[in-house]
Amino acid sequence: MPSLKEIKTRIASVNSTRKITSAMKMVASSKLHHAQVMIQNMLPYEDLLERILKSFLSSEADAQTVFSLERPVKRVALIVYASNSSLCGGFNTNVIKMMQQAIEEYKSLGNDNILIYPIGRRIAEKVAKLGLKSGGSFLELADKPNSSQCIDIAKDIMDKFNKGELDRVEMIYHHFKSAGSQVLTRRTFLPIDLSEDFTADNDRDLSSNVVTAKAQEYLRKKKSKEYQSGESVPLNDDFIVEPDLKTVLNELIPKMLHLMVYTALLDSNASEHAARMVAMQTATDNADEILRQLNLQYNKSRQQAITNELLDIVGGSVNN
């Protein structure tokens, strides 16, 4: 049985750890709020552009570009989003597992025909360890999302796809639905499926950082009622194309692809902070439970020591 001094040292150690996890939880909560604001500021542009593109493509039977044509897959690229740091639960581990599953599916092509765009140090280290080809270093992008660098990545991929250096491009990232729910997603980037419902992923809950199940359920019900009460009016699909269909598609589709890279980055960034916040909250709760048990053990040991001393005193007085 540990001594009172050992238990007291252990309590002090757990208290110090709890202070760290609690502080990290608050920092992650603050960063999550900023990430939610960034997504919220981007959503109006994303929604309208996707609605315009979807309505336009669905109304034009001849809407075909080089980016929407299927072809035999000989060379593939994966855009994989992770984080630079750890202590965020299974966030990075799950992304790496899905990346390895995708690599296993394309194993017959050979490692030389698989190109990885690693966004985040954890993924970059794994890619180097596996000996795969990397599309560049994007460590800063994982911590500080910016649209200009996302546009550069999208342009590089589009250029390779246009030249025939790539036949298929996929994205692997966490889709941020709420502070308590991040969905690991594998999505086709190129070629574009023109019949795809682009707005299917706009289901984020940006109203709260609360991660309890009851709070999330309440917010989901409230949100669904709001959607039912105010449905959006569809766009007019009677388009007059100027100067021509090809020129318009060559402008709209690259913008959509740039937006997809940037949106996935914001999703991944917000998911990372949410996962870290949940992990640090869990660690803090575990520390509280350990402290409760240690305090109980300390009090029992202390009471036992006092009882033994009293028995010694009483026993000595009786013998005298």
Describe this protein's structure.
This protein is α/β, with parallel strands linked by helices and 320 residues long. It has one domain: 3-Layer(aba) Sandwich (Pyruvate Kinase, Chain: A, domain 1). 61% of the residues lie in helices and 11% in strands. The protein has 7 helices and 5 strands. Strands 3-2-1-4-5 form a 5-stranded mixed sheet, with helices on both faces. β4 and β5 form a beta hairpin. The longest helix is centred in the C-terminal third of the chain and has 75 residues. The radius of gyration is 27 Å and the shape is elongated. The two termini are 32 Å apart.
What's the structural blueprint in terms of helices and strands?
Blueprint: H1 4-59, E1 76-81, H2 91-105, E2 114-119, H3 121-130, E3 133-134, H4 139-143, H5 147-163, E4 168-178, E5 181-190, H6 213-229, H7 245-319
Helix pairs in contact: 1-7, 5-7
